Amino acid sequence: MTTIEFARHDGIALLGDIYIPEGPGPFPALIGVHGGGWQQGSRTIYQHWGPFLAARGYVLLAVDYRTSAPDRKSYPDAVHDVRAAVQFLKGEAATYKIDPARLALVGDSAGGHLATLVALAGDSPAFQGCYLDDKYAGLSTRVKCAVGVYGIYDMVRQWNDDQVGRPRNRITEQFLGVAPMDDRRIFFDASPMSYTTTDNNGTAFLLAYGTEDDIVDRAQSDAFLLALKQAKFWARNAVIQGWGHYWMGTDPTDPGSGASLFAPRLMRFLGDML
Q1: For 86, how many CA atoms within 13 A lie in the half-sphere containing its CB?
Q2: Which residues lie below 8 Å from residue 77, measured CB to CB, with a gap of 6+?
Q3: Contact 5, 81 (CB under 8 A)
Q4: pTM greater than 0.90 (yes/no)
Q5: Domains of the chain, earliest start first
């Protein structure tokens, strides 16, 4: 594992941990985007997945991005940071023995939101044209595959759920800087669900979640999966029986962990689609 700086936005160094297989390559690659309610979390959540994937012939770049605070929103900054990670891997493909045509985004919880939003809308006018000084700002952020793990795909729905589940921590409102009753458009623009259209269906999706999740309602994944299929995306789900939230940080080589239950489905998906 090597720690690299993949971009610098507004004076903040954006860091990632990259795991590279042995051998000449070129290898398919994944960008891992951590969760944490857009408020916290770290790229180290993928510390077990990095060696696991590298041993199976996949590069993993696990990234950090700018997070929100009570007095600071981080939308669309976090989106731009994840976009920059995709562009960096494409631009530096030869350096890291990567096939730039075989990239995937994977994220858990809020990271699942960012990963799927960039996969669907990274090249849209809403997110283009910022940080033009990035070395690879002109490259497309289109990827071949996206993996959302107990992700947030409908921002208004998450805001509504939080009124019951955690009314003192309105994560979507803090992330976007506004409540839906004040600006519904931004909630629409920030929702991956909004970009599930037939003219945009070139990316394959795998959506994973646990049956006992009480942080992000699994109904979000079900509704997102339906919207993807209606728009003729290649899309499947992976339901992890008996697990709730947070299991993406467990070790996929530890028998019985949530990650170990998900790993075979993930590897089959990547083998077929990437």
Answers
A1: 32
A2: 9, 10, 65, 66
A3: no
A4: yes
A5: 2-154+195-273 (3.40.50.1820)
Place of tokens 């297989």: 21
User: Which residues, 6+ apart, have CB-to-CB distance to 114 below 8 Å?
Assistant: 33, 65, 78, 79, 82, 107
Amino acid of residue 75? Y
Question: CA 195, CA 141: separation in Å to the nearest integer?
Answer: 15
One-letter amino acid at 221 equals S
The string of pLDDT tens digits covering residues 142-194 is: 999 999 999 999 999 999 998 887 777 789 999 999 999 999 999 999 999 99
CA distance 143 to 260: 25
Q: What percent of the chain has pLDDT over 90?
A: 95
Alpha helices in 75-181 (DSSP H): 77-91, 110-121, 155-165, 171-176
